[in-house]
Amino acid sequence: MLLLTGCGEIPRPFGQEPFNKPNIAFLLAPEAAGIFVESVEGPVGWVGEAMAAALSKSLVEHNVIASANARNKRSYVLKGQGYQQLHVDGPAELILDWELSDPSGKVIGEKRVSSIPPSAFWETPVAAHFKDISNQNAPGIAAWLIPQLETVTAADLPGLYVDLVEGDAGSGNAILRQALLRKLRARGVTIEGRSKPPEGTLSLEGQIDIKPINADTDIVAISWRLIDPDSREIGVIDQQNAVASGSMEDNWVAASPIIADGALQGLLPLLRAYQRQRIGEKPVTKRQ
Question: pTM here?
């Protein structure tokens, strides 16, 4: 329940005084092992938690690896504080001041986003309100965290099409693919964004298999196949690890950037080898 009243151009904070922070055009955190969204300060506890949870879901839909309940030692942290801005001649705004910290706790960026929630939000907020607010905030925050920078492609290297990841990992399929796409773009690899690979591009196919080996342990096996424009296999990168039984279901957000890093250790040499092959006409087939 949010009990807020007042009039005029006066900020009405949920709790503490609002931050006085500047806006910046964008902030790139290229190697973050996910963004952990803390409970938003200002409203009562459950409202702040609900806002953080809704925002993390919206950020994932905008290709930002984010979670309000999972983090690791390499995660960046997004903190928010909100307050109500009343206007004499218009509806009240919800002002959210965001602060991003790196894994060491150092503040590396600040941003303010305003939105206009339904009037009922201020007294009886419901799930639909949080979703609406997060959908208004997420595009600006996503553009701030991951600007669409022009990439530089290595000479003679065709674009790469990353296919949908297959397997029995549920939401982990999409989360892992998003993490890998972020890493590839950060390396300057041109990514083809069409529904199927156009002519002349390489394709990367991912497969996740999770199998129990006993009552307490699962084996997570991931295979990446790099395919040339003529549908020939260039190479395969295999990854696997033992985890607690059933634990991956809630840990894909935290684990996927680390998995993507491991995949790149095998994939980038294959891409460079393919580049050399095109120049020197030497065959390339390799398993990483």
Answer: 0.47
